[in-house]
């Protein structure tokens, strides 16, 4: 993602094509990585997402969209990969995903919308209802709603940071709870796999509000 950041800082990118940002960054890649890139222009959000990182859009206290994860099979997310020549010569089978595998979406935004981006360390450990409560307060556990609700009042930068910190802390706490029925546990059971408790992993979160 540091490669993506460098491209954006240079200003040499097309705002409506976040997938091209991923493609340019991919050419500098030395390891494997998931990628989630969002661009916003004129109240429209353009996304390119590859793997099990992702984002959600909140409006009026409700989660109105959650990006689906991309996996080859359970616990095997899509990842941008450039293998060293030595590994390529081993003639083994590898999952090699490229920028064009990214899922592209476009959303119309409203003033006050909250956009949350995060790695799988959040999604694997926090249910959507938990995330919504930390963002908005006490909301319904099944807090996904396709209806557009009243716009959220402007939130201060300090408050956005505090909510972001709370999400990261609760995700870290739940990841270490061996008795917790996590989203990862629930997905594993659907594949006939017992994986009780949280799933320790990196937690990176970005939270911002549309002005």
From TrEMBL:
Residues 1-210 form the PPM-type phosphatase domain. InterPro entries: PPM-type-like_dom_sf, PPM-type_phosphatase-like_dom, PPTC7. It catalyses: O-phospho-L-threonyl-[protein] + H2O = L-threonyl-[protein] + phosphate; O-phospho-L-seryl-[protein] + H2O = L-seryl-[protein] + phosphate. It holds the Pfam family PP2C. Its EC number is 3.1.3.16. It comes from the Eukaryota. Gene3D superfamilies: PPM-type phosphatase domain (3.60.40.10). One of its GO terms (molecular function) is protein serine/threonine phosphatase activity. Keywords: Hydrolase, Magnesium, Manganese, Metal-binding, Protein phosphatase. GO terms for cellular component: mitochondrion. Its cofactor is Mg(2+); Mn(2+). Belongs to the PP2C family. PANTHER family: PROTEIN PHOSPHATASE 2C (PTHR12320), PROTEIN PHOSPHATASE PTC7 HOMOLOG (PTHR12320:SF1). This is Protein phosphatase. It comes from Meloidogyne javanica.
